[in-house]
Write a structure and sequence with these properties.
Layout (H helix, E strand, L loop, with lengths): L6 E5 L11 H9 L4 E8 L5 E3 L20 H4 L20 H7 L5 E6 L6 H13 L5 E5 L2 H10 L4 E6 L6 H6 L7 E4 L6 H9 L3 E2 L7 H10 L3 E4 L2 H8 L1
Parallel strand pairs: 1-2, 1-9, 2-4, 4-5, 5-6, 6-7, 7-8
Antiparallel strand pairs: 2-3
Helix pairs in contact: 7-8
Bound molecules: SN-glycerol-3-phosphate and magnesium ion.
């Protein structure tokens, strides 16, 4: 069978080797040959979209408290790198615009929505992607499938993906009963088997399993025919594919 090689998608950048969701991490993923990146977004109290996995600042910065209660001005000088290693001291929480400016056109940017913020996140994000003119490059995913549904209804140009950890009875059928056009599945990699992957690909879905770091798992997913692999170690996957 003549299958395309999966693309390498750096999870929170190259988060195995740099502080997650920072410019240093995304730049390293690009350097290591990633064709895409995954990142997580939160919104500030003045409506700016920032890149951070958690709703709070405590784990990955020298700040504390909820991001949605701070302004961009309050966040932009926090240190988001020191906790990973001294070499990354001074890394900042990126504004989403800084990441888009870094990632070349033609690369995949998988924006994961962690929280709906009463609908404010999807509104801000759709306006942002429109302003950047990056519909083609962007896939918006979330574990909250109602957000995904609303986004696709509000903006038919958006590519939307379903994130989930359950081993569904029929992955492609789940996507097709959503009532909107789903672009991609983002399953937990142990929650989807070869037959499910083949069926989903046949249904026209892209398949981007997360978060895959072991070579044996890369091999299993490549053989099954996934579209891309979300990994903390882009160089490891790149070496295997090349
Ligand atoms: O988007 C895939 C993956 O990032 C989902 O889980 O917790 O790493 O954001 P998490
Ligand atoms: Mg994520």
């Amino acid at each position: 069978m003549n299958r395309q090689k999966p693309i390498v998608i750096g999870h929170r950048g190259a988060s195995g080797e740099a502080p997650e969701n920072t410019i240093a991490s995304f730049a390293l993923a690009l350097e290591q040959g990633a064709e895409g990146i995954e990142l997580d977004v939160q919104i500030t109290n003045d409506g700016e979209i920032v890149v951070c996995h958690d709703l709070t600042l405590d784990r990955t910065t020298n700040g504390s408290g909820l991001i949605c209660e701070k302004s961009w001005e309050e966040l932009k000088s926090l240190d988001a790198g020191f906790w990973f290693s001294e070499a990354f001291t001074g890394e900042r929480i990126p504004h989403l615009r800084q990441v888009y400016d870094l990632i070349p056109r033609g690369h995949l940017i998988n924006v994961e929505i962690k929280h709906a913020y009463e609908g404010r996140m999807e509104k801000a994000l759709l306006a942002f992607i429109e302003e950047m003119g990056r519909w083609e490059d962007t896939v918006i995913s979330s574990f909250d499938h109602k957000v995904i549904h609303r986004i696709k209804q509000a903006q038919p140009q958006a590519k939307v993906g379903l994130l989930y950890a359950a081993n569904l009875i029929d992955h492609a059928a789940y996507a097709s009963q959503l009532g909107v056009d789903v672009y991609s599945l983002h399953p937990y990699h142990h929650g989807i088997g070869q037959e499910d992957i083949i069926a989903a690909a046949a249904a026209g879905l892209a398949i981007y399993p997360y978060t895959v770091n072991e070579v044996a798992d890369y091999k299993r997913l490549i053989a099954a025919g996934v579209t891309g692999i979300i990994t903390d170690y882009p160089a490891r996957l790149r070496n295997l594919l090349d």
